[in-house]
């Protein structure tokens, strides 16, 4: 497990106020700043340190947003306060921060409509976030939270692959993470930008042995094209998932 950055930022995490909601003023600070360039800032957050190497499904976003960052810190601190073992804390932090709220509801609905739960022989896609969590790994192309002019980075501006600070994470750190996960895993990129990065890595032969699901929309409520994109691609996605499931 790659915990080098965790060990670097752990002293600062331990100084944060306990048992209360954390704010941007407390987390988007010099103490947690990994790197900065132009209008971009990358901050540390502890929820993508845990890698589930036995996963059957990998769901990939672009970067953790502010909400995920806050939830990750609060969950991690809760685990520290309970004096739990570090791997258990990181596992729980990942679980707590993965696509929470309305985004998770939209995600589960679309996965169910594509028949993912049937391919996995489970009762519903919602159980991937509960008792069937061992089947799932969630991650981001950019491992740590990235902000553009103080707002969540969407992957569009500036261009991810043309920005050295970001492309290093996308083309070096991210494929190294996927290489640790079982082959024949189904990778589900959320939205056009995440899919573009994964296709880039596949073409560059940096991804081998995984199955890539194309056309899955980003589940954010702010994605106004979500329903239309899903309907356009639903048949092809359902067919790929069914065929993938037959080979499990």
UniProtKB/TrEMBL annotation:
<dbReference type="InterPro" id="IPR005122">
    <property type="entry name" value="Uracil-DNA_glycosylase-like"/>
</dbReference>
<feature type="domain" description="Uracil-DNA glycosylase-like">
    <location>
        <begin position="50"/>
        <end position="231"/>
    </location>
</feature>
<dbReference type="InterPro" id="IPR036895">
    <property type="entry name" value="Uracil-DNA_glycosylase-like_sf"/>
</dbReference>
<protein>
    <recommendedName>
        <fullName>Uracil-DNA glycosylase-like domain-containing protein</fullName>
    </recommendedName>
</protein>
<dbReference type="Pfam" id="PF03167">
    <property type="entry name" value="UDG"/>
</dbReference>
């Amino acid at each position: 497990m790659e915990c080098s950055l965790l060990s670097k930022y752990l002293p600062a995490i331990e100084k944060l106020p306990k048992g209360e909601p954390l704010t941007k003023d407390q987390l988007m600070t010099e103490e947690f700043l990994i790197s900065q360039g132009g209008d971009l800032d990358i901050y540390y957050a502890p929820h993508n340190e845990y890698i589930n190497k036995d996963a059957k499904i990998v769901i990939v976003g672009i970067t953790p947003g502010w909400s995920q960052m806050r939830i990750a810190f609060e969950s991690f601190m809760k685990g520290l306060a309970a004096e739990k073992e570090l791997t258990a804390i990181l596992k729980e932090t990942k679980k707590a921060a993965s696509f929470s709220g309305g985004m998770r509801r939209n995600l589960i609905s679309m996965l169910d409509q594509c028949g993912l739960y049937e391919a996995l022989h489970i009762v519903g896609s919602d159980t991937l976030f509960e008792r069937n969590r061992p089947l799932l790994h969630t991650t981001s192309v950019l491992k740590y939270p990235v902000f553009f002019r103080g707002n969540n980075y969407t992957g569009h501006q500036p261009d991810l692959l043309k920005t050295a600070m970001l492309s290093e994470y996308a083309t070096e750190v991210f494929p190294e993470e996927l290489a640790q996960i079982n082959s024949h895993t189904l990778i589900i990129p959320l939205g056009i930008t995440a899919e573009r990065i994964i296709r880039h890595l596949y073409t560059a032969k940096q991804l081998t042995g995984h199955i890539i699901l194309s056309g899955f929309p980003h589940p954010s409520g702010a994605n106004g094209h979500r329903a239309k994109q899903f309907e356009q691609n639903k048949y092809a996605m359902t067919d790929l998932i069914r065929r993938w499931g037959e080979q499990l």
